[in-house]
Amino acid sequence: MTPLMAAGIQLMLVGMGTVFFFLTLLVAATHLMSKIALRIAPAASAGSPAPGSLSDEEVAAVTAAIARHRRRT
Q1: Non-local CB neighbours of 54 within 8 Å, separated by 6+ positions
Q2: What tens digit of pLDDT does each residue of 1-32 get?
Q3: What one-character-per-residue DSSP string does 35-61 give?
Q4: Is the torsion defined by CA of 38, 41, 47, 51 positive or negative?
Q5: DSSP codes of every residue in 4-32
Q6: CA angle 4, 5, 9 (to 5 degrees)
Q7: Per-residue pLDDT for 53 more than 70?
Q8: Are 51 and 44 in contact (CB under 8 A)?
Q9: Are 73 and 66 in contact (CB under 8 A)?
Q10: Helix, strand counts (H, E) of the chain
Q11: What is the spatial distance between Cα 56 and Cα 42, in angstroms, rounded to a whole number?
């Protein structure tokens, strides 16, 4: 193997190792921030409605808006 080829392989391994290290660090930081966020803002209490639930009036308004939009096109 020529010295130029060996230097290229060494540079490739150092570069890939650096990227792997920072991506692993990023995943760990994301997990840590998620745990901190859950501690600061815990899940909704049992008395409050689910985040995705809509009232009957809201469902009717959305349905009417979609129907009106479809009539125009």
Answers
A1: 62
A2: 899 999 999 999 999 999 999 999 999 999 99
A3: HHHHHHSPPPPTTSPPTT---HHHHHH
A4: negative
A5: HHHHHHHHHHHHHHHHHHHHHHHHHHHHH
A6: 120
A7: yes
A8: yes
A9: no
A10: 2, 0
A11: 28
Three-state DSSP class for residue 73: coil
The model scores a pTM over 0.90: no
Which distant-in-sequence residues (6+ apart) come within 8 Å of 73 by Cβ?
A: none
Look-up of token digits 């997990």: 31
Burial of 3 (0-12, 13-18, 19+ CB in 10 A): exposed
∠ CA 58-62-65, rounded to 5°: 140
Please provide residue 53's backbone torsions phi and psi, each rounded to the nearest 5 degrees: -80, 145
Matching residue, tokens 């409050």 = 48
pLDDT of 48 higher than 80? no
